[in-house]
Amino acid sequence: MSGFRTAAGGLELLIDGQVHRGWRAGKLSFSIGAAAASFELTLAERWSGAPDNAPRLVRPGAACTIRLDGEEMLAGHIDSVDAAYDKASHVLTAKGREKTGDLADCVATVDGPYEWRDVTLPEVARRICQPYGITVRAEVPEGEAFPRYALQPAETAWAAIGRGCRQRAMLAFGDGRGTLLFTTAGAAGQAAGHLRLGGTDGNIRNARAGFDWKPRHSLVVARGQSEVTRGANAAQSREPARGAAAGQRAARATDAEITRYRPTVLLAEAAVTATPQQRADWEVMTQRARSRRVTYTVPGWRGGSGRLWRINTLAAVEDGYLPLREELLIVGASYSVSADGSTTELEMMPKDALDLLRGRAPQGSS
Hints:
Blueprint: E1 5-6, E2 9-15, E3 18-20, E4 23-31, E5 38-44, E6 63-68, E7 71-85, E8 90-98, H1 101-105, E9 115-119, H2 121-129, E10 135-138, E11 146-150, H3 157-168, E12 171-174, E13 179-183, E14 195-196, E15 206-211, E16 219-224, E17 227-229, E18 238-240, E19 249-254, E20 263-267, H4 276-290, E21 292-299, E22 314-319, E23 324-338, E24 341-349
Parallel strand pairs: 10-13, 14-22, 16-20
Antiparallel strand pairs: 1-2, 2-3, 2-6, 4-5, 4-23, 5-8, 6-7, 7-8, 9-11, 12-13, 15-21, 16-19, 17-18, 21-24, 22-23, 23-24
Helix pairs in contact: 2-3
């Protein structure tokens, strides 16, 4: 098989800089909140026209690049290779991720430092990512600095960064090409097109929806813990106060749709940007939004505008079956190709599910 690639584009795989043309099928997936974009490829080790002495390119650890219609979408490495073979053929299944996948597997630091002072969250990420050769970019303001940011022993890099995301109401995910991106919900703008079920311009091939009330609560109580400065001056150590000295504050929010008694209590991990009331209100709002999730499959990889579908963009949706007529956020996009053609699977939910800015307090609050 010559691979799903034409003169005009298609899906193209390069391994160690060499094009591999033995395609059978492939899937490339992006998700908001994931450390890395991932792929799963089914291909032949040899293909028609390949020289007999061609090296075995498909192996764990190999550097690879994936392009869609000539656009570089992923730069990373093959993680694993499974082989199925008989006397007549060898079929390989290769799985891998972009470069930022190392952040999910490896520790934030080996020999320290284990804490920094007066640093923003993107700066924390830059220091953690520097040994990995991963760049960090913030497409939103970097936010208030942490007076103290401590790493936990044996904590993964991704876990260390994730704690800061929750405290500073930011989203972080790999952009596919080895950069860790800090952003907020919908910051990428409008999607490549609309989504419509039925009609002459309907582009939804199939759909599935999920409605899950299990994460929702009738009452949310948020408690914050103020940090106090220990010592005579600000240069000395700052640690969270304990017990009565902590100066706890509490706030409550209710979800009117949940009629059973289902309470939960949230405790701040550290001095956070949002107030307890904002944190409680945000929890109710986001859990309500996350309880509504729908996935659409559309033909091809591009929307009506001619652009590729992308995560963190907003698309108008018309679905008479649910019924649904509103703008939703694309939180996951998977590009697939097989002998039957190409499709894109779009996972969507209300923007409120990830609209962390609604939970942010003005700069300088704690």
